[in-house]
Amino acid sequence: MKGLMILANGFEDTEALATHDILKRSMLNVDLVTINETKEVVSQYNLHIKLEKMLKDVNYREYDFLVIPGGGAVGRVLQGKVEIKEVIAYFVKENKLVATICAAPSLLADEGYFLNEKFTCFPGCEINSKGGKYLPNKGVITSNHFITAKSMAHSLEFGLEIIQYLQGKDQMTKIKKAIFGEKQ
What is the pTM of this model? Predict the structure, then answer.
């Protein structure tokens, strides 16, 4: 199973790194890619990361799931970008998992992809939503082939929910026990 995580300058540190970490612990292959002009991205809290791939150099059709963390990158960089809209549209059309957290669910809500879905996001990011049932008091929601999470505080739960969706409840429980230091 192969996943694509899109990062841009201003991505929320924990949402990206904790989610990536949890998915890798479950033996999921997740490529971190950027839409920047260079392979370096700078997080919301000034962490500099050099990525191996750029979005323009990958064939996103070869991936099984998409993850987009939130942070300032969503409104300042990703919102309205044609290439981001194309990637999201492909995953939605193919009924492949699209997992977004914090501000990132707005990338789908604003396009009407949550029309018949339940979703959550960081408060205020639902404002331009074209339909759907916004649930502000939920931390993480799975609705068909979408997983949304409210904020950075829900990053671990978000990652575990992705594992459950892709690999089942037993695998999610195994990883959860491992990260919380519980006996298997």
Answer: 0.97
